[in-house]
Amino acid sequence: MKKKPSTAGDLHSIPAACSGGRGGLAGSVFEQAVSQAELAISITDPHANIVYVNPTFSRVTGYTAAEALGHNESILSNQTTPPAVYRELWQHISRGKPWSGRLVNRRKDGRKYLAELTITPVVDASGSVVNYLGMHRDVTEMHRLECQVRNQKALIESVVDGAPMVLALLDADDKVVLDNHAYKALMADLDMAEPAALLLASVRAENSSEGAPREGYAFLDREVRIEGRAAEAPRWFSCSGVWVKEDDDRADAFFAGAGRAYLLLVATETTRLRLQQEKARMATLQAMMADEERINALRESLSAAVFQLEGPLNMIASAVGMLSRRSAGDPMAAALAEAVQSGSAALEKLRAMIPPQQVEAATAANVNELVRSVLDLATPRLLAEGISVAWTPQAVLPAVRGYPRALLALFKSLIDNAIDAMSLRGWRERELTVTTRALLGNIEVLIEDSGPGIPSALQLKVFEPFFTTRQGQGRHMGTGLAIAQQAAVDHGGTISIDPDVSRGCRVRVVLPVSR
């Protein structure tokens, strides 16, 4: 194509339809603005032949004004841009519509670059296209950075999704905004919408992080136990939380340097290891509970013997007093007095033989774990008696500050009594339901059986020491209930029998979370 004179690079040589009829100071300012613009600007005729370029065009493309003028814009084409892109471009601008997009261009020295281009048709008074105004910039580096970001994001997502631990990113409202495949699998396993809320609730129940600095670790290696239902085993997770800061992308925050804080929750399942530990713990617990039962039985038998002997001995002592007042020196009174003295000495020896209560240090106790342990220990009896168990715990409960062995004895006494109630010969309905839940700062445990129940007249008396109804009609709240009630009182809680239950018996244990 034949080149036009170099004077075509001057804006004054462009037709009035393109220049807009400028004059004077306005025209001078426009020319300076265009010539000094950081965008590569070119103006072509309707056939894409170049009639004007600014200095930035020359710096970007390597073509001087003299070299570019009169040539078609195709001198910049690298022939690698898909033809469909060019077809779309011409469909827009030939109809008088602007077009924006990216093209692969080639500099004069042959080097390729990615151009972000906007072409605007310039029309005359009749609406006919007389020129095209093209503005483009080299976005090769920007494109490279965009690709790096996308590639890095894809790599990070691959690593995160392939990680065996649960990962979830939560906003300030504890809403999950990002997660991985392991988290989605946990959602399906637990059949709940957001396991992250459950894990965080358990962590925060032990140690509130409110007001803590939102940087670094929020918490580290906190163990969380999620209780399973029915035959499902509990699951354990080691949880850590890391604060992640995101810059605020709003325009008015550009100079403020503000940002949003997110919490990255990392949970590693430790169930397999914990189950192995649980087997060893249950074996130890079973031996310990057997020893404690023997000791408690001995303590109860000796206490009952002392209680039974104290009554007659007190009556004899009263008779001795009466005889002594009636006739001084009565040999019968002296003999009885000697018998009372010997009996009192024997009672003191008997009291000394009663095993003392073991002192236990207070610690954080997981009620779900304690009740589950009692049910596991009672499994052979439950199977032998044909009793079906419905275990419906709240998945995560706040810890109770108390004495784990005393609480174990409390729940064991209640469950043993429930089993006794349903073990009557010929009794067909044998269902045990155990429920736990957090309620208004307390932990509530409901133990229900389908046995014969307890008459309302005896529902308070069964908690008295040495009272039992196991003989006769076989009702089940016996001597262990006084110890269970004392354990509840020691924890600031209560035990009560629901009077409104028409079938079987329902015992409610309420323990405060903090005292």
What's the structural blueprint in terms of helices and strands?
Elements: H1 16-19, H2 24-36, E1 40-44, E2 50-53, H3 55-61, H4 65-68, H5 83-93, E3 99-106, E4 112-123, E5 129-138, H6 140-162, E6 166-170, E7 176-179, H7 181-190, H8 195-206, E8 217-226, E9 235-247, E10 259-269, H9 271-326, H10 331-353, E11 363-365, H11 367-377, H12 379-385, E12 388-392, E13 400-402, H13 404-422, E14 431-439, E15 442-449, H14 480-490, E16 494-497, E17 505-512
Parallel strand pairs: 12-14
Antiparallel strand pairs: 1-2, 1-5, 3-4, 4-5, 6-7, 6-10, 8-9, 9-10, 11-13, 14-15, 15-17, 16-17
Structure description:
- The protein is an alpha+beta fold.
- It folds into 4 domains: about 5-145, 2-Layer Sandwich (Beta-Lactamase), CATH 3.30.450; about 165-250 and about 260-270, 2-Layer Sandwich (Beta-Lactamase), CATH 3.30.450; about 275-355, no CATH class; about 365-510, Heat Shock Protein 90 (2-Layer Sandwich), CATH 3.30.565.
- It is about 40% helix and about 25% strand.
- Helix 11 (about 365-375) crosses helix 13 and helix 13 (about 405-420) packs antiparallel against helix 14 (about 480-490).
- The protein is rod-shaped and about 150 Å long.
